[in-house]
Structures are given as C-alpha cells and as structure tokens.
Amino acid sequence: MPFIKNSKKITTIVDKSGINTHKINYCRCANVPTTDVQLCQMGLFLVSFTQPKTAFTFDVLDDFLLDNLECGTSAMNYYNKLRRMTTSVFPHLVPDRYRELMRVARQWRQLKLLKWNGHGHESKDRKLGDLALFCPACPQPGINVTLLPEDEQEEINSKSELPNPSWLHPRSLHLYVANPMDEVSLMDGRAFMVGDSTYKAHLAQAKDAIQWLEVTGIGGCACARHGCFIPHAMVNFQKGERYAHLPCH
Fold first, then answer.
1. What is the CA angle 220-223-224, rounded to 5?
2. For 3, 17, 22, 244, which has the most beta carbons within 10 A of its beta carbon?
3. What pLDDT digit, counting tens, does each position of 144-159 carry?
4. What is the pLDDT of residues 182-210, one digit of tens each?
5. Residue 194 · residue 232 · CB < 8 Å
6. For residue 59, what pLDDT is reported?
C-alpha cells in the first residue's frame, strides 16, 4: 500500500525487509484479547499500546540488536538501510520511525534479558544484578562449589594462588542531557551497571562532575582469570579514573 500519512486507519509496520503501511482489521469477537495483545500474538511489537499506529516485527528487532552488537550499527544507520531497502529512489518518502526504533529496541532488549534470566513465566522480584550473567567458571557457593568448614577454608585461602579481581577502565565521554527528567532507566542496577540512586549517594561526598561532561569514563570489575564482568559492579567516572568511585556496591 502506498505510504499514507496522518490516517487513523493505517498502521506502519517495520520489518527487516522494509517499511510498509497496512490497514489492519482487528477481531471483534466476544472475549477477544485487546488490539495490542492481538498484534503481539502475530509477532508485532507496538510503539504505543492505547491506539497503536506503528509496530516493529520481532524479526527486525532481533536483527537490529544483532547488527548493533556485532557490527556496531547505530539505530540511525540501520533505519536508513531499511528505508533504502523499501525504495532506493525516494527513501525520504518512507515514514520516519527512527526515534521509535531507539525506544522500542531498548524495551525489546530488556524483555529478552528478562526471558533469558528466568523472568518470563512467573512474577518475581528482580534483584540487583539479576539480569546479568556471572562468570560460570568462577566458584559460587551453593551453585558450583560446596562450602567447607571455616577452619579448612582459612587454610585453603592462605595457600590459594587465584588472582584477585581486576578493575578495567575504558574511556567513554557523555555530555549532560538537556532534559534529565525525560531519561527513563529500564535496568537501574539490574544488570552490570550500579543503580543510579546508589551511585549518586556514594558520590555525594565528593563533587567531581566536570562542567560540560557528565561521564568521562567507565570502570568495571572483572574476574582476572576468565575476564567476565561482575554484575552490578560497573560505574561511570566523573573525573579521571579515581578508585573512590569503584567500591560503592
């Protein structure tokens, strides 16, 4: 169907084969699910849930996350590719859903993490670091190692040659956002980064923020033997690579 703008009867569907507009007739039978659930059952992830007019297929969201992970493809470049796949002659006529892709991709990534970490079929509280995987090879009491009596533990620890966790300090710059109230955190400490409120409380004792930068680097703790990052152990730096920023969790 040709691209029709500002029509209440037309829904824009973004797929990895291109962007199309369709007229969707929803089921009106008794006891039928709501329109948003009907579209989800058809493999479509909605941008809005009250009056959905744009939807992304599950395939295109999976494809974007994979491209972003392995190829470093930004949301802008990926969506421009879809526009040219739709029509290489007039890509500017294709509906612009770039901002919607950025928002929906974050939500889709969180849903995948919830599913992979056992939150898909039951409702349970998500604790700090629950959406990140700890190193499967490192000793974890009660999971892959049995605890010994305290006297035997002290003897083994004194003879242990295991390396201590190492701190990594990759550089990353981030400007202050124009509207901080519009920034919504979907993880907030549930994955690798330390929770925002916890970290700000830790930094309240030292004001290290630079005038034009909110973040000057990222620090994280990883097991020295296997190189796996530790959940809820990564923080943002405000000034250099100060160790005072790290042991806040």
1. 105
2. 3
3. 777 666 666 555 555 5
4. 677 777 777 777 777 777 776 676 665 55
5. yes
6. 94
User: CA–CA separation, 198 vs 129, rounded Å?
Assistant: 13
91 contacts 80 by C-beta, under 8 angstroms: yes
As a whole number of angstroms, the distance between CA 221 and CA 247 comes to 10
- Calculate ∠ Cα 3-28-59, nearest 5°: 50
DSSP secondary structure string, the chain?
-----S-TTEEEEEETTEEEEEE------TTPPPHHHHHHHTTEEES-SSS--EEEEHHHHHHHHHHHHHT---HHHHHHHHHHHH-SS-GGGS---HHHHHHHHHHHHHHHHHHHTT-SSS-----TTTTSPPPTTS--BTTTBPPPPHHHHHHHHHH--PPPPEEE--EEEEEPPS-GGG---SSSSSSSBPPHHHHHHHHTTS----SSEEEEEEEEEE-TTT-PEEEEEEEEESSTT-GGGSS--
- Tally the residues of the chain: 249
Which single residue is written with the structure tokens 């700890």? 134
The predicted-structure confidence for 90-117, as pLDDT tens digits, reads as follows: 888 888 899 999 999 999 988 888 888 7
**What is the spatial distance between Cα 133 and Cα 228, in angstroms, rounded to a whole number?**
9
pLDDT at 64: 94
Q: Are strands 10-15 and 54-57 parallel, antiparallel or unpaired?
A: parallel
Confidence at residue 57, expressed as pLDDT on a 0 to 100 scale: 94
Tell me the C-alpha distance between 207 and 228, whole Å: 31
